[in-house]
Amino acid sequence: MVVRSLSLPFQFRQTSTRMEMMYQYLWRTGALGREFTLTDGRSVRVVSPGLHNTDAGPDFSNARIKIDGILWAGNIEIHLKASDWFRHKHHDDPAYDSIILHLVGVADKPVHRKDGSPIPTAIFPIPVEVASLYARLTSPGGDIRCGADVATLPALVKEDWLESLAMERIQEKASAILEENRNLCGDWEQTCFVRFARALGFGLNGVPFEILARSIPLKYIHRHADNPFQIEAIVFGQAGMLDSSCRIFDDRYQALCREYFFLMRKYGLRPMNQSIWKFARTRPNNFPHRRLAFLCKALEGGFSMMRALIDGASDRETIAGLFSWSLSGFWRDHFSFDTQAHRISETLSRASLDSIIINFAAPVLYAYASERGDIQLAEKAIGLLEKTDPEDNRFTRRWETIGIKAGNALRSQALIQLHKCYCDEHRCLDCRFCNRMIAKVAKESMPSYGNRTPSLWE
Questions:
Q1: Is 396 strand, coil or helix?
Q2: Chain-centre distance of CA 163, in angstroms?
Q3: Is pLDDT of 3 > 50?
Q4: pLDDT, tens digit, for every residue of 216-255?
Q5: Which pLDDT score, from 0 to 100, does residue 453 have?
Q6: Which band of pLDDT confidence, cut at 50, 70 and 90, is reported for residue 23?
Q7: Highest mean pLDDT: which of 14-28, 134-148, 407-421?
Q8: Residue 418 near residue 135 (C-beta atoms within 8 A)
Q9: CB under 8 Å to 240, separation ≥6 — which residues?
């Protein structure tokens, strides 16, 4: 089998740096195998490829290889042509005397250490199929560059990577929650309140809700826990939505304004700027006013959700029941203080409850379990996601078109993590899907290493 000549897209061919990056990636991942032959005929087996060095010095450090059965430890250098050794002035740099293997695309010139001893050299041929796939995966543009190739991967490979991605996502969320908890001096109830409020913002108003929750110490809420009217005055007042000068002449609204003015002066509160709230592309039923009314429901009787989460962690329906409030009175038929409505939903939808479980309940439980080393509680948090319906958004729908369906929330979180942190960030070479694809193409197109196998440059 002959390796065909290289023919790559312009954006890949334009710099030798990108070519060397491809060589380094293939060496690091072992996509082209771990056994080959040196230019002098000796056999080489890679024990460890070493650590990739992105700073000055050899490309890989602390590598271990066996040459004709003898173990060598040291550094690896990779060049497109052996003569690049001299072009890069490595022959004048003592740091390169520790090179135990020189990998090249073309062995056009022998290379020696400063003492005259030859440096073991191997031609590193790359099939055009591998180079083309690498170029496609590293080229700009496109949201999922691997496309239909994912469907060719074994089911076990896909399951293993998605499981790792799901854990990566919940651990990232847990880290942010633990940082929040440290900033709040270890107060888990206040932490829970802030994270719950953010989740109630459902993305669009998540940040305003978080800012609001940070501005309301729970100790003030607990003092008025038995008075829903005062709780509503604090919440809507802090949200910047109570202004007696507004042309809203409803008696209840004006009464809330007066109550908030009293409580604001009593506790030294400072309201948010109302302009921070977002209404664009929002259905009236999802207006911030409605979500704030649900937040008031959560605060009635005092806020002690953390213990309730821990006690109900093993049951999805129990957790969902913690958020199944029903609005009554004024908010039963109003979208906002000056907008009345009919046929309005009095409760959060099932999709909204699922969103709160995914973005609040499970991550908070996992963070709490991580801090205390509680493995059982951490497993319950993961199980909660497995029992919850998957998210239906542009990320999950995009993956479904190429054959990967989210069967539960744990899987949908994995797909979101994959898309946001790998596809969108052009981190294809860190993705196990792409690693496996390149290895598969390499295995099919490259029968073996060896000096007689033509390189891409020949």
A1: helix
A2: 13
A3: no
A4: 999 999 999 999 999 999 999 999 999 877 878 888 999 9
A5: 38
A6: confident
A7: 407-421
A8: no
A9: 271, 272, 273, 274, 276, 277
CA 103 to chain centre: 34
Which of 458, 349, 419, 411 lies closest to 146 in space, CA to CA? 419
Confidence band of 52 (pLDDT split at 50, 70, 90): very high
pLDDT of amino acid 299: 96
Q: Return the pLDDT at 9.
A: 41
- For the record, the structure tokens of 46 come out as 């890679």
What confidence score (pLDDT) does residue 16 get? 64
Q: Work out the angle at residue 233's Cα, subtended by the Cα atoms of residues 227 and 234, and round it to the nearest 5 degrees.
A: 95
Q: What is the pLDDT of residues 271-328, one digit of tens each?
A: 999 999 998 777 877 889 999 999 999 999 999 999 999 999 989 999 999 999 999 8
Enumerate residues 6+ apart whose C-beta is below 8 A from 144.
150, 398, 399, 402, 419, 423
- Residues in contact with 215: Cβ distance below 8 Å, sequence separation at least 6, in sequence order: 238, 269, 270, 272
CA distances (Å), 31 to each of 35, 52, 119, 300, 456, in order? 11, 15, 24, 59, 16
Tell me the Cα Rg of the chain: 30
Helix (H) or strand (E) holding 70: strand 70-81
Conformation bin of residue 341: beta by default, left when phi > 0, alpha when psi is -120 to 50? beta
- How far is residue 184's CA from residue 191's CA, in Å, rounded to a whole number? 7
Give the type of residue at 59: D
Helix 155-183 × helix 188-200 angle, to 10°: 120
CA 415-209-297 angle, to 5 degrees, is: 105
How far is it, in rounded angstroms, from Cα 246 to Cα 116? Answer: 88
DSSP letters along 176-224, please?
HHHHHHHHTTT-HHHHHHHHHHHHHTTTTTHHHHHHHHHTS-HHHHHHT
Three-state DSSP class for residue 72:
strand
> What distance in Å separates the CA atoms of residue 57 and residue 370, rounded to the nearest whole number?
39
The conformation of residue 91, written as its DSSP 8-state character, comes to G
